[in-house]
């Protein structure tokens, strides 16, 4: 798709990978509604980006990415402000091996609600123009990662959900090109959860060891690389729709291209 002049929503855009998504989109002259549950930091990030890329290019709105009403109002605000909506990104997720219900609720719930509302607003079956939806899953969704079985399973469900919705049976109805981005361990605030024994659970010591190794070898994924992958997937959306773009090193690999008809 052509990104110059396109309109996007990034839910969870105030920090880390989401912030990198916003910057990468703005670099390509895409307009961005940066949505986040944290008002103060969201506004700060949006203002910093506005001073760099233009005040008409980016704006902030408070949004809980697991709340259907918030997601709908956020998408509609972007459409109303700029007269169109092309790209919907939801980046929300948690890791808490001590609370499986909440992990499933948030990680899978945010994916299902985002797809539901995106289809409602952009779906060809609802009179919309189609568009693109991107969800952040995790490399743990497709690579073996026994350290965090509940988190990994929730993210695998996100990948499989998107893959299912991109089957021709569904795509022929809604016309929205959907994909997931699956980074490996990325240097953001999210990894601080490793210090919380309750949230990591029985693999706490092993997790600490892995992070120590990452630090010693500086083998983190950088948020900028994830932003670069987003742009690559958007610019090649016809070919990459339905795939999970996995970033376990600087070079991505793509999994699960849906084929055929049932
Ligand atoms: N950092 C990693 O190693 C890594 C790797 C793969 C996938 N992920 C996924 O990326 C996401 C975390 O992003 P990050 O690593 O950039 O962390 P981060 O903490 O730097 O940023 C997360 C952002 O999401 C916002 N947010 C959290 N809950 C929200 C909600 N309910 N509604 C709206 N906004 C909300 C936060 O306020 C924050 O701005 C999760 O989905 C996680 O599973 C992270
Ligand atoms: C064990 C570390 C716990 C803290 C890290 C916090 C969050 C990370 C979440 C990511 O979504 C996990 C992503 C990928 C893990 C999958 C494969 C890892 C492959 C091993 C490696 O990259 O070294």
Sequence-ordered SSE layout with sheet pairings:
Elements: E1 7-11, H1 16-27, E2 31-36, H2 39-53, E3 58-62, H3 68-82, E4 87-90, H4 100-122, E5 131-136, H5 149-165, H6 168-174, E6 176-183, H7 197-200, H8 204-217, H9 223-235, H10 237-240, E7 244-247, E8 253-255
Parallel strand pairs: 1-2, 1-4, 2-3, 4-5, 5-6, 6-7
Antiparallel strand pairs: 7-8
Helix pairs in contact: 1-9, 3-4, 4-5
Q: What does this molecule look like?
A:
There is one protein chain. The protein has 262 residues and is of the alpha/beta class. It has one domain: NAD(P)-binding Rossmann-like Domain (Rossmann fold, 3-Layer(aba) Sandwich), CATH 3.40.50.720. Helices cover 47% and strands 16% of the residues. It is globular, with a radius of gyration of 17 Å. Residues 11-12, 14-18, 36-38, 63-66, 91-93, 136, 138, 183, 185-186, 188-191 line the site of nicotinamide-adenine-dinucleotide (NAD).
Class of secondary structure makeup: alpha/beta
Counted beta strands:
8
Q: Give the CATH topology.
A: Rossmann fold
Report the β-strand fraction as a percent range. 15-25%
Instruction: Please tally the helical runs, counting DSSP H or I stretches of 4 or more residues.
Output: 10
GO molecular function, one term: 15-hydroxyprostaglandin dehydrogenase (NAD+) activity
Pfam family, one: adh_short
Enzyme class: oxidoreductase
Family: Belongs to the short-chain dehydrogenases/reductases (SDR) family.
């Amino acid at each position: 798709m052509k990104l110059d002049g396109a309109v996007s929503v990034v839910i969870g855009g105030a920090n880390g990978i989401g912030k990198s998504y916003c910057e990468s989109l703005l670099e390509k002259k895409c307009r961005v509604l940066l949505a986040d549950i944290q008002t103060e930091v969201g506004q700060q990030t949006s203002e910093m980006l506005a001073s760099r890329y233009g005040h008409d290019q980016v704006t902030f709105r408070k949004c809980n990415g697991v709340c259907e009403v918030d997601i709908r109002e956020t998408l509609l605000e972007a459409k109303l402000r700029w007269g169109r909506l092309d790209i919907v990104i939801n980046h929300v997720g948690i890791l808490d091996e001590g609370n499986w219900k909440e992990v499933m609720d948030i990680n899978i719930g945010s994916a299902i609600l985002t797809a539901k509302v995106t289809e409602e607003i952009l779906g060809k079956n609802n009179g919309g123009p189609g568009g693109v939806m991107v969800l952040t899953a995790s490399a743990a969704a497709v690579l073996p990662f026994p350290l965090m079985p509940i988190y990994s399973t929730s993210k695998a469900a996100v990948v499989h959900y998107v893959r299912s919705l991109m089957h021709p049976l569904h795509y022929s109805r809604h016309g929205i090109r959907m994909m997931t981005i699956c980074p490996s361990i990325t240097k953001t605030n999210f990894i601080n959860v490793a210090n919380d024994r309750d949230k990591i659970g029985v693999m706490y010591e092993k997790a600490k060891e892995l992070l120590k190794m990452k630090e010693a070898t500086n083998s983190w994924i950088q948020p900028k690389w994830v932003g670069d992958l987003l742009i690559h997937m958007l610019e090649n959306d016809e070919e990459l729709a339905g795939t999970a773009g996995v970033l376990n090193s600087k070079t991505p690999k793509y999994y699960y291209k849906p084929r055929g008809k049932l």
